[in-house]
Fold:
Amino acid sequence: MTLRLLIAEDEDMIRNGIEKYIRLHTDRFAQIYTAQNGQEALDIIFQSRPDIMLLDVQMPLKDGSEVMKEAKGADILPATIILSGFEEFRYAQQALNYGAKNYMLKPSRSSDILAQILKIADDIEGPDRKETVEEGNNSGLVERAREYMEEYYCKDLTLQKVAEVVGISPGYLSTLFSQFLGVGFVDYLNRVRIEHACAYLKQNYFKTYEIAYKVGFHDEKYFTRVFKKVTGMTPSEYKKNH
Structure:
């Protein structure tokens, strides 16, 4: 973990949200810097030499094109991903001419941004680093997947979605779940959901169908089948016993 990342974005909510998402879902970066205007981004580039930069096009003091032009002129331009609104495409074209690696249209999902950043990280560190990450930090990958599932268990989670967040292929994540947890992805997700369902049942505030939807199931009958498979009893039996 030696790479340094710079996030240059003038909108506080977007900048802070992306930084928080990246810190939560990868430990790939030794340092993550943030800048709220173009001049601040340039200062960080000159002082800290980040390896990768996520760069907004329209910023105060200096826009993204100016930042890239000056950094390239000093031969210290990080590998750059451009963030731009549709109406700013002319500026984005200039940035691409200065050597931007990719161009993403606002609004972009944090998971998509992270995927592009990690792709560049792999390009910088080479396939040997990527292989080491997969072989040496497997337990960490599983733990990040578990943390994400614990937070978003009530959403429409899929193996594909969680694999994108962790930064590996769905097939590889499925293999890791079987290797480290002894269960498949769906079985583990169901266990997490049923655990939360049990907590709701103990409170005795909600009806069974309400709890089913609260923990991510869209069908009460299917929820009941899964609940019995995991706990050995139906939701009504569990509520009666607790």
Summary: Residues 52 and 149 are 28 Å apart (CA to CA).
